[in-house]
Amino acid sequence: MSKRTHSHGIALGSMLATVMLLASCGGGDKNSPGVEYMPDMYRGPAVEAYVDYGQDPYTRSEELAVSQRERPSARQPVAGTIPFSSDPAKAGFNMPYPYPNTVEGYEAAGVSLKDPIAMTEANVEKGKVIFMKFCQACHGERGLGDGPVVNNGNYPAPPAYDGAQLKDLPEGKIFHSITYGKNIAMGAHASQLNKEERWLVTRYVQFLQNGGKMERGPVAAVAPAGN
Amino acid sequence: MPLLARITERSPGLVHAILALFLLFGTTALQAQPADAALYASGEKIFKGNCGACHKPDVKLVGPALKGIKAKWEGKGDIYAWVKNSQVYLKTGNPMATAIWEEYKPTPMTPIALSNEEIDAALYYVDNYAPAVTAKKEVVVEPVAANDNNWLWLVIVALLFLVVGLSLAGVKRDLRNSVLEAEGKAPVPDLPRMQRISNWVGDHKVIVGLGSLFLTVWLMMLAWDAAWVIGVYGGDEVPHYKPEQPILFNHTLHAGKVDQGNLAINCQYCHSGAEKSKHAGIPSANVCMNCHKAVDTGRNTGKTEIAKIYAATGWDPGKMAFTGKEQPIRWIKVHNLPDLAFFSHAQHIAVGKMECQECHGPIDVQMDVAEQWSPLTMGWCIQCHAQKEVKMAGNGYYDEVMARLNGDENLGHAELKKYLEDGKITVKELGGWECSKCHY
């Protein structure tokens, strides 16, 4: 009887090994996007954003692959075009920014560029939402230059908005700095924020310049720049 | 004699082997069950339906890990009020609540309409939660299974088993023949191998029958499970798709928590399309350069990885100027939604006011390399659409439909009343389950 048991054990052992062999079929390679069920419906004929058509498994056709291989899928808008807005009140924001990224441009913006968005609590609040996403990491919640990137990342600290250096910075210069960046430490944010958003942020920065008060009071809205 | 007892008596080895198989491949069936299985099951349902998008029992997700949370609250505050509406309870100034809020703000927990009993059930589930021990994990602990040679090793092991089995059978036969010879009896005739095997099968019909049945059923279960995860590369069932990227970008370092020494940059700083566009966007290298003009040495990787951004953007760190020689970075897209389904980030972020982590997982706390966290299956989509309460305030998106529902005293009000039976208006109720919302 015991002999028999052994042979059963061996037979079952072999079976077990076979089963394990089959079970390993599902092993995942973290670098593989894997098999697709009905690829025809997975990949439309239109070119999709962020898909590298020169790379497996996205190659739809050799022709497309070759044409796409060395071209970035994220592209600049065609030169000379501007965005369209169906809202006439906001159309002015789509006009080109006339001040060049030079010291003269910076100064000129400081003199003649005015915020088309009213200094109201609602707009300051909207500006704050954008500020918290795009500026707070360095400038800190209160604009004191104490954001986490500065504190934890040993990043050059920007001056406080309500400090001597920036307290009286005109709105045109604030907008200009957001658009083109300032020094090495502050990059250009024009690709992340459209003009309306930059002006809203400008209003929140002014709010912080005043030490968190609506000191200058609501000002009348004027036509957007370049309109 | 009952069949099972007969099998046991005849071949205890078989029973052991079957037990071993179960231990190896059995899943939840053999897990330690909690004392009150019914409460556990109902708690699981409540937890997964209401809490699971942001909480896990054992690990921190959007909110804290919940195992043992009830004991922690014992005597320190009203956990029921806290779960039902954390923002209201916070105003009572309870120190426990305040501490949790300070750690996890600014994302408030969605108020949840559950009864005390339901909360108790969910917490019972959480306290007794044990991670599922699955077959896959058992196979993975085999020392041979960890590398690309899995197949080769398993084939070798299987062949080894076969050779040992056949040799032992031969040895056994020889021994038996010797015994028979010693006893002066005629030896067992030396039959061809196939004949011997078929004789063995004929002698052990029950074992072979049960074995084949078990194997067949088990393989069918495997195939069934496998069919469900074709094209699924996230979620709990499968290893997450986590491709190596051309640059070792570390999400945790850039977007992680401040108190862990990370930079806590908002997700949308880089993925600025999320609120405006269908795509959250892979940031173009100029966004990297917003900071990396000033940072040329990484905390973990030194200069090698950041030098790749410089090469892509044509930045000369010595001269602090762009050379104009650009080479796009070939990032690998991680979340591949099939073309047959429409998905818009803007709708979910700007209108739905969702947090990135609700779908992308704890990318800011435990994901050095981005991976596909959620399954992205249709079931996963519509489950959320059926449960998620629509956040009406302040986005303007639902004003029209609400005005029409409120304006129609007969049909509209009846509809609204139906929607509000569970105390909330879900995405599904406002058309989130219409086929053409996503498929067109």
| β-sheet strand percentage of chain B | under 5%
What is the multimeric organization of the chains shown? heterodimer
Q: What structural class do the secondary elements of chain B suggest? A: mainly alpha
CATH class (first level) name of one domain in chain A: Mainly Alpha
- Provide the β-strand percentage band of chain A: under 5%
CATH architecture of one domain in chain A: Orthogonal Bundle
Provide key terms for this protein.
heterodimer, A: 227 residues, mainly alpha, Cytochrome Bc1 Complex, Chain D, domain 2, 10 helices, extended, B: 440 residues, two-stranded antiparallel ribbon, 23 helices, disordered N terminus
Notes on the protein architecture:
With about 230 residues, chain A is mainly α. Chain A has a domain at about 95-210: Cytochrome Bc1 Complex, Chain D, domain 2. Chain A contains 10 helices and no strands. Chain B has about 450 residues and is mostly helical. Chain B has a two-stranded antiparallel sheet with strand order 1-2. Classes of the chains: A mainly alpha (about 230), B mainly alpha (about 450). The interface between A and B is large, with 71 and 84 residues.
Task: Give the gist of this structure.
Chain A has 227 residues and is mainly alpha-helical.
Fold topology:
The complex is a heterodimer of chains A (227) and B (440).
Chain A: H1 2-23, H2 39-42, H3 62-68, H4 88-91, H5 103-112, H6 121-134, H7 136-139, H8 148-153, H9 171-180, H10 195-209
Chain B: H1 3-10, H2 12-25, H3 37-50, H4 69-73, H5 79-84, H6 86-90, H7 95-104, H8 116-127, H9 135-141, H10 150-182, H11 193-203, H12 205-228, H13 251-255, H14 267-270, H15 285-292, H16 304-313, E1 315-316, E2 321-322, H17 345-351, H18 357-360, H19 363-366, H20 378-387, H21 399-407, H22 411-419, H23 435-438
Antiparallel strand pairs in B: 1-2
Helix pairs in contact in B: 1-2, 3-8, 15-16, 21-22
